[in-house]
Amino acid sequence: MKLDITKSKTADTRSCDWSQVSKKDLLVSSTQHIGDIQRGFMFFIRKMTERALMHDKSKISDIDGFHEDFKTGFKNTTWWEKHQEIERHHFNNPKYIPEDVNLIDILDQIIDGCMAAMARTGQYRQEKIEPELLQRAYQNTVKMLLEEINVVDVKDNP
Question: 43 near 3, Cβ under 8 Å?
């Protein structure tokens, strides 16, 4: 579902002749901008909800494989390797980091690490994450949002 946003020519001093913008026009542009931001947040809320519902599904769908690796203390890693390949939130092995890693993947890893650690040991174990990975996730998240934005002209809007 594309995010339709209306072109705005009066909301920013860097992109308009600010001396010609009335208070009413500024109010309209600002209200429009706030609505656009809300649509952007809702896009990410939907994406995060989808991720939350899918988190670690491979633990359930392949409980037999999970149990086989688990009962060896993960000396056997057949299931674990498949799990890392399927689930986007594992960053310990660069081999399994998706090229299009994004900030939703990062949040998934943070939430997973905190929830698992607190439930299992009562103490969070700091995970190391490379700055380059965060930068790539940031850029891919920007790209994800930009691909959803459709800028329409006022004359195109009914």
Answer: yes
Domain ranges of the chain: 3-54+88-156, 56-87
In Å, how far from its chain's centre is CA 22?
37
pLDDT truncated to tens, each residue of the chain (158 aa)?
A: 799 988 887 766 677 777 777 888 888 888 998 999 999 999 999 999 999 999 999 999 999 999 999 999 999 999 999 999 999 999 989 999 999 999 999 999 999 999 999 999 999 988 889 999 999 999 999 999 999 999 988 764 44
- Whether the CB-CB separation of 30 and 10 falls below 8 Å is answered with no
The model carries a pTM of 0.87
